[in-house]
Amino acid sequence: MTSTNWAGNYSYRARSVHAPATLEELQELVSASARLRVLGSRHSFTDIADCEELVTLERLGHDVAVARDDLTVSLSGAVCYDQLARALAREGLALANLASLPHIAVAGAISTATHGSGDQNGNLATAVAGLQIVTSDGNILSLARGDPGFEGAVVGLGAVGVIVGVTLDVEPAYQIQQLVFTGLQWEQLFEHFDEISSSGYSVSVFTRWAESTDQVWVKSRVTGESHATTHADFFGATAAAEQMHPIMGLDPVNCTPQLGVPGPWYDRLPHFRMGFTPSSGAEIQSEYFVPRSHALSAIGAVLRIGPTIRPLLQVSEIRTIAADQLWMSPQHGQDSVAIHFTWKPDQRLVERVLIEVERALAPFEPRPHWGKLFCADAGTIGPMYERLGDFTSLLERLDPRGAFRNDWLATRLLGRG
Hints:
There is one protein chain. By secondary structure, this protein is α+β, with helices and mostly antiparallel strands. It has two domains: 115 residues, Uridine Diphospho-n-acetylenolpyruvylglucosamine Reductase, domain 3, CATH 3.30.465; 204 residues, Alpha-Beta Plaits (2-Layer Sandwich), CATH 3.30.70. The protein contains twelve helices and 20 strands. The strands form four sheets. Strands 11, 12, 13, 14, 15, 16, 17, 18, 19 and 20 form a ten-stranded antiparallel sheet that branches. It has a five-stranded antiparallel sheet with strand order 4-5-9-7-8. It has a three-stranded parallel sheet with strand order 1-3-2, with no helix packed on it.
């Protein structure tokens, strides 16, 4: 195959892509394949999803079924968040959180611990109540929250099997209002970080690591009879009087509505609207998570290498994510602060500057986002995950022949041994 990922920075090397039309065909394919990985919405920026053979679940359907009594929703493995959000909206239901982009596959997002933001909000995988997985012997394994191995299988990095079904927690639909503030000074961010990050349900600070931050996006739940509010001043920053794009100079037409106008959760929690090209399109992304206790020191370390970063940078985003107990989640056991980079699409130069970024962050135990570009290898990353041994044992039990392992997994987590 010659196709690329969403951003165009990675070309898949697989010999073939299979598209089974039935679950039975998928089971036969999995049991007969020596090496196989699932190709989802292609939003990863590396070879994490690549293998000798790939399989797409697109022909298996995009089923969504709501269980109101349990406040859960069950969906097939090919469903993306935009499809799920529309189905939930029709039922008057919602998810607790969404990522910046609604265009990504649910199964892929939870497998890599993709996240939204908010002091009290876990990553998207924390909403998982159940999984249905085709394991390497072709059988279907069902796991529910509380079952042995469940906390290891949810953020499974594509290595536990083919996720053909996901059950998520839902709640009654709610509205969000979104305000943007510009010109927040660094000294204000450092002095009032906790107040700023808790000023909304979901808060993002965008910056190019210059004299000040660029923008702060504050997303707040609209409760009861409350109406949209505006603030003339936000820790010295000024409320934007017009729609903004996170990347300065780009047309905000594809961004979700701002200016404090209340709207449905699915049209405010993401930064970008459903049905439109997200972000800038031509980009490479990297992201690192540090313990919240190290947040200000880590941000300061990146700020000091700002002159090195800026020539390749489109924008950075600083967010918070709550701790969880999922074994391979970057937020396992610790409230975290995410430092995200949207780079210009120059792979060679980005990889070079990432060496400097990772060196600056090294004292603060940075855990990279699994689906994005980073340099650290298994020797660096593995010791950061106290449940890695349990995860390895889970893989040996569910996939004893290593059908779902690939070069990325060996290089970045498990090691060649």
